[in-house]
Amino acid sequence: MHLDNYTTADYVCPSIPENDQVAGRGILFPMRRSIEELIGSPLTPTSRKLRVPTFDGSIELGASNVLILLIAGFLMVTLFGGIHCTAWFFAFPTYEEQVLWRMSAAALTFTPWFGFLTLLLSGGFPVYAVLYITGRAILLVLMFTTLRNLPPDAYKAVSWTSSVPHL
């Protein structure tokens, strides 16, 4: 049916067809309805088809755009891990924490690239995802545990007025 055959009332207050009733569809109906909308089900009401999608994958990307997004994602992940590698020679409360930090920072930096290469060669990527998530979790815990042993200068009050010359 062409869009000119609809009135304003169809867009403002759409009628719900009988096959779109929540009753009888179960608790997962909202999720299933969203998936049906994403794949373009003919059962989707017109009012839902005409709304602006948000991050639903409806925009078709060319191969070059997908490649650019993939490379940008890998570069951002590498940069994120590299920033954590800058603390390689920082002082840590214990040697074990320093080694954990170094291993986790290296995992954040290089795991996505090793995973990508493994995916291209053999198709096994989930092991690297678990390693990356574990590295992120370890770094998060270490960030808070190293606050227990701050140097005495961290507790000194800063005289900000002496840093501003015109005060």
If you had to describe this structure to a student in words, what would you say it looks like?
The protein starts with 7 loop residues before the first helix and ends in a 22-residue tail after the last helix. The mean pLDDT is 77. It has helices at 8-12, 29-39, 46-49, 63-85, 95-121, 126-145. It has two domains: 8-49, no CATH class; 63-149, no CATH class. The protein is an all-alpha fold.
Question: What secondary-structure arrangement, pairings included, does this model have?
Answer:
Layout: H1 8-12, H2 29-39, H3 46-49, H4 63-85, H5 95-121, H6 126-145
Helix pairs in contact: 4-5, 5-6
User: What letter string, H or E per element, gives the SSE order?
Assistant: HHHHHH
- Shape estimate: extended
Biggest β-sheet description: none
- What percent of residues are in strands? under 5%
Over all CA atoms, what is the radius of gyration? Answer: 26 Å
- Structural class by SSE content: mainly alpha
Q: Write down the domain tally.
A: 2
Instruction: Report the mean per-residue pLDDT as an integer.
Output: 77
Distance between the termini: 73 Å
**Helix content percent band:** 40-55%
Number of strands: 0
SS field, number of helical segments: 6
The residue ranges in which pLDDT falls below 50 over 5 or more consecutive positions are none
